[in-house]
């Protein structure tokens, strides 16, 4: 991506917000970290992921009955004792408010049951599913 693309991406992101959708910057690439220069890929679908990812709100009309449409889905996987961070909860809530599917889970079976419920016709979009507590920021301790 060249520098000239940055203003266009910013404008596209704002435009998508005006439409009621969202488009976030998706930086993709490879970096090196650690003493062994370990290669780490970053970004969604890296390499080759689009510059912006997000969702577009579409009202389902009678003419669409029987059609299959993609619904943006955000899944946050957590370890047994790992809380959901406030920024992660905010992202999941934004996806759910926009009609997307938002899941936070510690177990594969939980997500599998949600998927099966959706396949059975249950509307699982529009709210966050999960039972992982949100981490609360600790107030800074006063200096000694």
Secondary-structure content class: alpha/beta
Mean pLDDT: 81
Quote the distance from N terminus to C terminus: 49 Å
- Gyration radius, in Å: 19 Å
For this structure, the quaternary state is single chain
* Shape annotation: globular
**Total individual domains:** 2
Helix fraction by DSSP (H/I, runs of at least 4): 25-40%
List keywords for this structure.
2 domains; two-stranded antiparallel ribbon; 21% strand; 144 residues; alpha/beta; 3-stranded parallel beta sheet; single chain
Descriptive account of the structure:
The longest helix has 14 residues, at 5-18. The protein has 3 helices and 7 strands. The chain has 144 residues and is α/β, with parallel strands linked by helices. The protein folds into 2 domains: 1-57, no CATH class; 63-144, no CATH class.
Describe the secondary-structure layout.
Elements: H1 5-18, E1 22-25, E2 29-33, E3 38-42, E4 52-55, E5 73-77, H2 86-97, E6 101-105, H3 108-119, E7 128-129
Parallel strand pairs: 5-6, 6-7
Antiparallel strand pairs: 1-4, 2-3
Q: Could you provide a short overview of the structure?
A:
The chain has 144 residues and is α/β, with parallel strands linked by helices. The protein folds into two domains: 1-57, no CATH class; 63-144, no CATH class. The protein has helices at residues 5-18, 86-97, 108-119, and strands at residues 22-25, 29-33, 38-42, 52-55, 73-77, 101-105, 128-129.
């Amino acid at each position: 991506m060249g520098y000239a693309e940055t203003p266009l991406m910013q404008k596209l992101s704002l435009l998508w917000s005006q439409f009621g959708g969202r488009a976030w910057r998706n930086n993709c690439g490879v970096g090196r970290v650690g003493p062994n220069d370990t290669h780490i890929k970053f970004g969604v679908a890296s390499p080759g992921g689009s510059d912006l990812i997000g969702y577009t709100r579409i009202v389902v009309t009678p003419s669409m009955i029987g059609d299959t449409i993609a619904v943006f889905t955000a899944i946050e996987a957590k370890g047994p004792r790992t809380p959901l961070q406030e920024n992660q909860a905010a992202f999941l809530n934004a996806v759910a408010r926009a009609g997307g599917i938002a899941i936070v889970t510690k177990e594969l079976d939980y997500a599998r049951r949600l998927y099966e419920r959706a396949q059975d016709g249950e509307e699982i979009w529009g709210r966050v599913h999960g039972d992982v507590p949100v981490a609360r920021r600790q107030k800074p301790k006063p200096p000694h």
